[in-house]
Amino acid sequence: MVKHVILWQIKDEYSDSEKAEIKKGVKEGLEGLLGKVPGLTEIKVYTEGLESSNADLMLDSTLESEDALKGYQKNPDHVDVANSKVRPFMKNRVVMDYVV
Q1: Predicted confidence band at 87 (pLDDT cuts at 50, 70, 90)?
Q2: Are 24 and 56 spatial neighbours (Cβ–Cβ below 8 Å)?
Q3: How many whole angstroms separate alpha carbon 39 and alpha carbon 47?
Q4: Residue 30, class by beta-carbon neighbours within 10 Å (0-12 exposed, 13-18 middle, 19+ buried)?
Q5: Partners of 45 in the β-ladder
Q6: Using CA atoms, how far apart are residues 82 and 80, in angstroms rounded to an integer?
Q7: Sign of the CA dihedral 66, 84, 5, 1?
Q8: How far apart, in whole angstroms, are the C-alpha atoms of residue 87 and residue 92?
Q9: Strands of 1-89, DSSP E
Q10: Res 2: pLDDT
Q11: Residue 5, class by beta-carbon neighbours within 10 Å (0-12 exposed, 13-18 middle, 19+ buried)?
Q12: Cβ(4)–Cβ(93) below 8 Å
């Protein structure tokens, strides 16, 4: 199994209400990939960090293998969500992939 974890920061130009809508869209879009992407076994987006956090969102996902992770990254459904609901709104992205 492979864990795929991402932390994002939303661009500063958005208001709190806009950030809330962006978070909602990211969560719905990415969590909606479960059952659509081969090898994706779990996916959860966390949008409500504590005040001590310096990230706005966290993706915590599990895939069957490193090959499944590579397929996820190229999957058209994932690419569509990333291009429409994630990438346009983020200023920073940190990723860690690891074997469990």
Answers
A1: very high
A2: no
A3: 24
A4: buried
A5: 59
A6: 5
A7: negative
A8: 9
A9: 2-10, 40-46, 57-63
A10: 98
A11: middle
A12: no
pLDDT average, residue stretch 71-80: 98
pLDDT level of residue 44 (50, 70, 90 thresholds) = very high
Q: pLDDT tens digit string along 13-42?
A: 999 999 999 999 999 999 999 999 999 999
Beta strands in 1-100 (DSSP E): 2-10, 40-46, 57-63, 90-99
Q: What is the pTM of this model?
A: 0.95
Which of the four pLDDT bands, split at 50, 70 and 90, describes residue 10?
very high
**CA distances, 82 to each of 1, 38, 50, 51, 88 (Å):** 23, 17, 25, 26, 9
- Residue 94's DSSP bridge partners are 7
Q: How far is CA 71 from the centre of its chain?
A: 15
* DSSP state, residue 11: -
